[in-house]
Amino acid sequence: MGKARKSKRQLVRDEKRAKQKRGRDEAAEEPQESPDHSAKRQRRDQPQGDGNANHIPLGDDDDDDNAAPVRKQPRADYHSPAFEREFFGMLAEEEQEYFRHADELLELNDFPSPEERDIFLQNVYKEAEGKELKLVSSQSCSRLMERLILLSNTRQKKSLFEAFAGHFISLVTHMFAGHCCEKLFLQSAPVVTQELSGLVEPEPEPEVEVEVEAEDGEEKAKPAAQESMEVLFLLTLDELEEHLSFLVSDRYGSHALRALLVILSGRPLNQVGTKSMLQSKKKEYVTVEGAAAMASELSTQTRAIPASFTTAIKKIISDTTAGMDITALRVLARHPTGNPTLQLLLELEFSLATKTKKVKVKKGEEREEEKEAEKEAAPEEEAAVSLVDKLIPGAPASFSDEESEAATFINGMMYDPIGSRLLETLIIHCPGKIFKGILAIFFAPRIQTLLRNDIASYPAIRVLNRLSKEDLADAVGKSLPEFPSFVEKGRFNVIKTFFERCSVRQASDQFEPLLKALTAASGGDWKHLVPNLCFLNEDAISGESKKTHKFQPQDIKNKTAMLSHGSQLISTLLSIPGQPTKAIQASLLSLTSQQILRMGTGSAPTSAVLVKALSTASQNPHFHKILVVAILPHVMAFTSSQYGNLIINAIIAAPSKGEGISVPFHLKENIISRLAEHEAELRETWLGRNAWKTWRGDLWSHRRHDWVRWAKEADPVEARVAAAPKARSGLGLPGAAAGAGKERMQGHSFRKVVEEEAEKEAASKETDVNMDMMDAAVAA
């Protein structure tokens, strides 16, 4: 009899599908139960609590009374999971103690050699074999699994995929296991690119293959080749495919879904924007000492991905929003958990559409066979409606109708705290045709009003970033009368955007009216710019108060944000040559020494302003000298401060005789001498040791001449050595006589040297003649 061979993974999937089918058949044949009896059975089936406890329904957090309730949608995935949450059991006390000790050792990562660490990891994996699901769902041991994943090799990561197979939907929606799955996905992403490029061959770890006999159905284990990481990701997506709509708004599952989307798109994993999209600010950062050095370079750059990943993204976008109409999408756009996922889906859809257009333009004329295939697939493509078409149907033509769904969506999202973020994504990535419609209908007529609003100002700023030079000049003209309101309400990010975009679009004629409006709104004088933008005349928001008060009042949080935006505005003005830089430098010179101290040690944004000022060229040759003189009385205060330490280190990097940047060398010597007086105090703290090392304090103490030579390396080459002494000109004769005397001296010296050389040559010839005569006499 013939034998049909199937892998273990295929058998598990077949068994799971058969089980689901039997469950549906039994549910169809089972008679209707009474509500009381059904509730009692539900309580017996869920002893661990409500399986939907971590899921936030789409309609519960919606504040809009006009939005239709989502309960009437035909698919039940949006509200309750269509799966039974699994309970994997608990570890014994001895096992918990062993894994807890292993977690402590891995956190320190203090192994004598990498080989011993690898041996330790192998032992931990051997002890955890068969207990992986218990580990990831344990509050105390899930951190161990995250550290194991950070230090694991490719073979061990693939073994974890095999251990989690068939349980991914329960794991990604679990409070603790979801973090482990997300870490596994992100750490395994570079392996896909390595295997695709052939840089790293799959490790020869045999997998179990099952041999099925057709007669009696007995199964025998047989080794088989291990699957690639690409296949493992695709099989994981197969498990989650039925529950994508539920994962979009799940409290824990949405993070894993976003991680998978980022991996499938090939985007860099370590970018700031990617990290903020994948995790919240409150997420615990689990790491291992020295793990950053082991990270793959592929995590910091765009990765090559197989074609199957692009197809998977398209399918996820279509499956996730297949049963949603415009009402459901509006609710999801205002959902605190679903909104970030919807942003990512919309951004990926735009990027895929851009890539498709580029490929078509590059290929040019296609072959006849490809044209026929496109014609056959055309009805299916027309039937599938894209996500942007569902959000703003008929755009941009429908924008002109105020009662259309597209216009209602834009107006509704513009003032919503959560929905405005989706509108920002739409503005950033939408095609130019749609953007022009959004600009002409919604933003251009009332741009100055939108920029005043707390929420609508952020989408309006995104619009400013895409304006042409002419449209930007028109927006500046409309917004100039509103600058007093911008300054009063702390809309410094709006003003910063105006200066930045005018610089990018080379609209230099707009700098003067912008600077005049900002100066008039800040008190009418340049000297008031920095004190007003950095709030130097008000109570400081110290870093200690931020740390001690966990729950801050809203006004303190807003003031912290305004301080950051004001400092960014100052840095932007410093980066624009001409009047903007001159205005900020004049304002800095008008500050007192105490105000400079408060700026340098008060917060990170204000200290960054001083660092920027020390590295910016100035038309005033004494600007940097005056600024350092104001810092000099507080050298130790700056050095011991977390933020001021950067300013002290920036002084030594500035040249002493540079073009536009000049910190006199005697001021640097003054600073290092003051640091040397407190050397013992500096060595007691990390900040002090950092400053002492940056200033080469040991070199100053033991080899002063070498320190001077090192400190002058920042200067131009011609200014590193002392100038040679010059001859006195004209022997004290004034004016033209001095010049004439110098010429006479130079001519006299030259003639004297020539005469001396002639005398030496004549004497040498005479000596030679005498020697010849003596030799002739001797020979005779």
TrEMBL record:
Q: Which InterPro entries match?
A: ARM-like (IPR011989), ARM-type_fold (IPR016024), NOP9 (IPR040000), Pumilio_RNA-bd_rpt (IPR001313)
UniProt entry tagged with the keyword Repeat: yes
- Cross-referenced Pfam families: PUF_NOP9
SUPFAM superfamilies given in the database record: ARM repeat
Chief location bin: nucleus
Q: Where is the composition biased (Basic residues)?
A: 1-10
A single GO molecular function, which one? RNA binding
Q: Keywords on this record?
A: Repeat
Function description: RNA-binding nucleolar protein required for pre-rRNA processing. Involved in production of 18S rRNA and assembly of small ribosomal subunit.
Q: What is this protein called?
A: Nucleolar protein 9
